[in-house]
Hints:
- It contains 21 helices and no strands.
- By secondary structure, the protein is mainly α.
- The mean pLDDT is 84.
Amino acid sequence: METFTFWTAIIVVILTVIALVKRIETRLVLLTAGFFLCCISLDPMAGLNQFAKSMTNSGLIQSICSSMGFAFLVAYTKVDMHLVQLLTRPMKALGIFLIPACTLVTAVINAAIPSAAGCAAAVATTLLPVMIRAGISPAGAGAAILAGTFGSSFNPGNPHAVMISGMAGMEPMGFIISHSVMYSAMVLLGAVLVTIIEVVFLKDHKSGGGTAEFEGMGEEIKNLNLLWAAAPLVPLVLLLLGNTCVPTLRMGVAHAMLIGAIYTMAVTLCNPQKAVTEFFNGAGKGYGNVLGIIIAAGVFAGGLREAGLVDALIDGLKTVGEYARIGGGTGVFLMAILTGSGDAATFAFNEAVTPHAAELGMNISNLGNTALISAQLGRTMSPVAGVVILLSGMCKVSPLELVKRTAVPMLACFTCVMLFF
């Protein structure tokens, strides 16, 4: 019976991967596979228990829902456009250095606006015309922005960071700070390599032209308001200071997001009824879209445990010793490329494998962080990723034109993570 269950589970995992690649609803796929695995393991209650447990994870709910609520409020008040304008105004005379500069600016904005697609939409309306007027091709400009959507790693409400830090017994911001060198190195390396590929090999600089179709893009902020521009960064600054040099400001992610929301409403003088409605709409979206995937991934991981696949995987990783991290990171990286989203693979891996890090000779934060970074790098070179499709439409080029500019940098960054971190 155990052999039958094990091999049936292998087939289920393969079918799950195929369904995710075909872009069938992620939550449906993971929930169906997870419950099925629990049933063939003769313990259907295990899946139901995992479902209930994941629904009430207070740390995840507070961080994710408050962060998404704040992101919706930022979009509603348009303070994000003031921040983009503030960061981009000094960049217009940088020439080829516009490419890495725009990548870094996107990363900063992405730290405040955690959604890769949402961030890209916000910054592209300003950065695309600036880069194209400077002689950078539309595909090159889009790739520069795409490379910067790695910046969500710095967001304290990043669901993966919250999940990993909870397992490791750390605060989310403490986890991010302790691993920020790796994040920063990846963003900088990616920016430099994208620039080299575009300028030296693909001749993107001074090859552009045809800027007329991009002239009317976006909203030009004529009267830049510094108080508005600061609003998206308020929670990030509070959490950074509280976890480093000003311990009296130490607080949770939800606290910081609420203070940021109050500040935003105060400086913009927006309609408070609509603002609060937007905040809670975002919180609901965060629960349904982000936490929903975490819940489904938890059920799937529970099914894998009941079927014996997790124990088999742990035993297999033990036999390769120091290469266990490379094996796990590579699997998540490839899944992100195939599906265009690293969330399902990362949540499932961190739910099932990362708690056993000590058995593999590693610590939870490092193993979980490897999976997180690997997934984000894979997503940034996937032609089916939502942010890639969005940017390709805005740039009026094929998704493949963007990812052929980010593929080599992301592969180089992934190799560095595997070898040196």
